[in-house]
């Protein structure tokens, strides 16, 4: 999951556990990212201030044993769309 986010140009961090953060900055970007994920059938957590510091709104992806190749393909597609839609790609 971390590789998919980074490959889409999104800021992420190596997880200490099964939760992968995808930092989108502003709350509206995180909300839009969550909408895009939902459109692709991907469930994510969406965290905005005051739950996270200002400027660090993010999605949180959770790995689980039942994730299959189809789930990862959907996630990769959603993350690429988020990078384009929010202008948050680090590849730009």
Tell me what you see in this structure.
With 92 residues, the chain is of the alpha+beta class. The protein has one domain: Aspartate Aminotransferase, domain 1 (Alpha-Beta Complex). 40% of the residues lie in helices and 20% in strands. It is built from three helices and four strands. It has a four-stranded antiparallel sheet. The longest helix is centred in the C-terminal third of the chain and has 18 residues. The mean pLDDT is 91.
CATH class: Alpha Beta
Structural class: alpha+beta
CATH superfamily: Aspartate Aminotransferase, domain 1
CATH architecture: Alpha-Beta Complex
CA-based gyration radius: 12 Å
Series of H and E elements: HEEHEEH
Average pLDDT, all residues: 91
Strand content: 15-25%
Question: Sheet bearing the most strands, described?
Answer: 4 strands, antiparallel
Question: What is this entry, summarized?
Answer:
With 92 residues, the protein is α+β, with helices and mostly antiparallel strands. The protein is built from 3 helices and 4 strands. The protein is globular, with a radius of gyration of 12 Å.
């Amino acid at each position: 999951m971390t590789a998919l986010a980074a490959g889409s140009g999104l800021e992420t961090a190596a997880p200490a556990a099964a939760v992968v953060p995808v930092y989108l900055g502003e709350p509206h970007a995180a909300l839009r990212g969550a909408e895009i994920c939902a459109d692709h059938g991907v469930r994510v957590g969406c965290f905005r201030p005051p739950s996270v510091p200002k400027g660090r709104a993010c999605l949180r992806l959770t790995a689980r044993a039942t994730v299959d190749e189809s789930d990862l393909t959907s996630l990769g597609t959603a993350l690429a769309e988020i990078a384009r839609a929010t202008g948050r790609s680090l590849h730009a």
